[in-house]
């Protein structure tokens, strides 16, 4: 398991060193979708901005891999004492490919257009399904979230075929498989089609920029579901500003401060 993970990380590092910038500059493939969303640049980024952004992201992404290897130590969670709710549990790179679904339904609340969410966790991960579904729904329904901004009302459904977005907490390998059209490198999460895949290592360990695991989880849910709602990436407007929710905060903050809510920035 470890050797496989180490191999993957090495592959990822080689890719990051050699290809990430070129791929990002070439188009939306890496620079604008590594953290999710297959929608490309969204029309808001010029080629010059894309180039600058790609450079920034390439560096940040490489730093993230180096700073938080998910392979050699095995332990995906932080060794820092800054995270208040660390889960010092090893998450294997390979998943079981089997799923546990949240089976309780919860009707939409409010007048917005219903937007159905299904939640599942890959079996074998140290992640409890009902707690996860509760957290996902509480985050999406938070008054600082998308509901009022986008005129939607999130509901929880147990049947994934009825879901507008299927949220999966998955092993790195399975996340990469779900996100196969994107560049997740066993590290980031993504939205592709109606799938939102959350890398379990980030779910349990966040990144070094986030010292609060709850805030990171709120960020990644709102960011990836934001893609499912049609939102494209944004960029840090100025150092010291709250990062736009749709900034790829997993890959670095570009001088901004962490922010998990679309109503803030
Ligand atoms: Zn994204």
Automatic annotation (TrEMBL):
<dbReference type="InterPro" id="IPR022603">
    <property type="entry name" value="DUF3152"/>
</dbReference>
<protein>
    <recommendedName>
        <fullName>DUF3152 domain-containing protein</fullName>
    </recommendedName>
</protein>
<feature type="compositionally biased region" description="Low complexity">
    <location>
        <begin position="49"/>
        <end position="94"/>
    </location>
</feature>
<dbReference type="GO" id="GO:0008237">
    <property type="term" value="F:metallopeptidase activity"/>
</dbReference>
<feature type="signal peptide">
    <location>
        <begin position="1"/>
        <end position="22"/>
    </location>
</feature>
<dbReference type="Pfam" id="PF11350">
    <property type="entry name" value="DUF3152"/>
</dbReference>
<dbReference type="InterPro" id="IPR024079">
    <property type="entry name" value="MetalloPept_cat_dom_sf"/>
</dbReference>
<keyword id="KW-0732">Signal</keyword>
<feature type="region of interest" description="Disordered">
    <location>
        <begin position="32"/>
        <end position="94"/>
    </location>
</feature>
<feature type="domain" description="DUF3152">
    <location>
        <begin position="89"/>
        <end position="254"/>
    </location>
</feature>
């Amino acid at each position: 398991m470890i050797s496989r993970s180490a191999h993957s990380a090495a592959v990822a590092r080689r890719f990051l060193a050699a290809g990430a910038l070129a791929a990002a500059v070439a188009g939306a493939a890496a620079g604008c979708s590594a953290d999710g969303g297959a929608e490309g640049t969204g029309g808001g980024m010029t080629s010059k901005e894309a180039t600058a952004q790609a450079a920034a992201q390439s560096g940040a992404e490489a730093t993230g891999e180096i700073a938080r290897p998910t392979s050699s130590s095995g332990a995906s969670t932080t060794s820092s004492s800054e995270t208040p709710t660390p889960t010092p549990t090893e998450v294997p790179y390979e998943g079981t490919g089997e799923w546990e679904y949240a089976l309780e339904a919860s009707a939409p609340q409010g007048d917005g257009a219903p937007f159905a969410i299904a939640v599942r966790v890959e079996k074998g991960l140290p992640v409890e399904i009902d707690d996860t579904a509760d957290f996902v729904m509480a985050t999406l329904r938070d008054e600082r979230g998308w509901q009022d901004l986008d005129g939607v009302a999130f509901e929880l459904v147990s049947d994934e075929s009825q879901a507008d977005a299927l949220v999966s907490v998955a092993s790195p390998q399975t996340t990469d498989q779900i996100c196969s059209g994107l560049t997740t490198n066993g590290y980031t999460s993504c939205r592709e089609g109606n799938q939102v895949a959350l890398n379990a290592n980030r779910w349990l360990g966040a990144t070094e920029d986030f010292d609060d695991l709850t805030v990171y989880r709120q960020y990644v849910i709102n960011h990836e579901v934001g893609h499912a709602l049609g939102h494209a990436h944004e960029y840090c407007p100025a150092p010291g500003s709250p990062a736009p929710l749709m900034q790829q905060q997993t890959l670095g903050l570009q001088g901004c401060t962490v922010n998990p809510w679309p109503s803030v920035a």
